[in-house]
Amino acid sequence: MPYKVGIVGYGVVGKRRHISLNKIPDFEVTSVSDISFNSENKPHDLNCYQDFRDLINNEELDALFISLPNNFAAEATLLGLNKNLNVFCEKPPSKTLDELLPIKDFIKKTELKLMYGFNHRFHSSVIYAKKLIDKQELGKVINLKGTYGKSKMISFNQTDWRTDRKKSGGGILLDQGIHMLDLMNYFAGGFNTIFSIIQNSFWNFDVEDNAFVLMQNDKGVVAQLHSSATQWRHKFNLEITLEKGSLILGGLLTSSKSYGEETLKIIYADPDNDKGNPKEELINFDEDISWDEEINTFTSAVRNSDKIENGSIDQAIEIMKLIEQIYKADPIWKNKYY
Which tens digit of pLDDT belongs to each residue from 190-199? Predict the structure, then answer.
């Protein structure tokens, strides 16, 4: 018998998850929900609901995929777990850190699988870079510098929940910068000394359109991040400096194709001989494997009781704790919102 799957939130991401799930032989999407459904636009070969709660409460399922606005993510996750469902939830895992704590308390008492969509860990360039770092052929990580930006939130207008902090919990840092922060944690370990400047000076909504962050961890590794909604040409760039060289992740394969080609540049340090122009190797990646790899990981964990290594509840709590620290490290932002 196939595992029956429900998807709550059937927008761009929910439909993309459906495509990947269709490639898994023993997992079958049987029901979907979206607030926009009506008699004309809903899929007629699936059980359809407007309210995600009705789907979770009425369907006999084995797994639940959550692609809802931030203010519903934690509620839907806990509701699914209480219905004895394995749950995959997109990022951010919740609107605030506090919303995640009851979920952690619950999941510790069960054998259910809970995974969060830190999708960038499954990109080819990231997988390759992580293997190189783990081998330590280039030594230990010294510092990181990342820029992740786009030209606006999707989209900046008065009716969009992403610009309403009561619904979203935050702006560009929580919506997109969370991926870069997660990669920095992934490559270098958690950070505990935080400095930040948080701004909403261009779009002028009550969520940030730029976050400038400087962090350090107990190992002395320093990381810089610029998360931006005023990056007029979309940009993804992560530079990792190690003792014997550098790794530069540039571009990202996405459905919009707006971040350019996905590449990994490996720089081999030779400070005695290279005169600042060291040997380099450039690797190009021409396929976005991240969606399928992520779904394969989750479905395998459900099927085989594997441990969730990437996207666990502990990692979700760690990144939400870090984001809260970043917001509170800016004294103006802290006084305005906390």
Answer: 999 999 999 9
Higher confidence at residue 206 or residue 267? 267
Q: What is the dihedral of CA 78, 80, 85, 88, to 10 degrees?
A: -80
Strand ranges of the sheet holding 141-149, from the earlier edge strand across to the other edge: 193-199, 210-216, 222-228, 141-149, 235-242, 245-250, 262-268, 279-285
Structural Rg of the chain based on CA atoms: 20
Separation CA 170–CA 196 (nearest Å): 15
The alpha carbon torsion through 254, 258, 261, 263 (nearest 10 deg) reads -70
Separation CA 261–CA 288 (nearest Å): 10
Q: Which residues contact 40 (CB under 8 A, 6 or more apart)?
A: none
76, 104 contact by CB (below 8 A): no
Q: For residues 56 and 32, is the Cβ–Cβ distance under 8 A?
A: no
E-strand ranges in the chain read: 3-8, 27-33, 47-49, 63-66, 86-90, 114-117, 141-149, 193-199, 210-216, 222-228, 235-242, 245-250, 262-268, 279-285
Report how far residue 117's alpha carbon sits from residue 145's, in angstroms, rounded to the nearest whole number: 23
Give residue-wise pLDDT tens across range 52-101. Answer: 999 999 999 999 999 999 999 999 999 999 999 999 999 999 999 999 99
Distance CA 185, CA 180 (A): 9
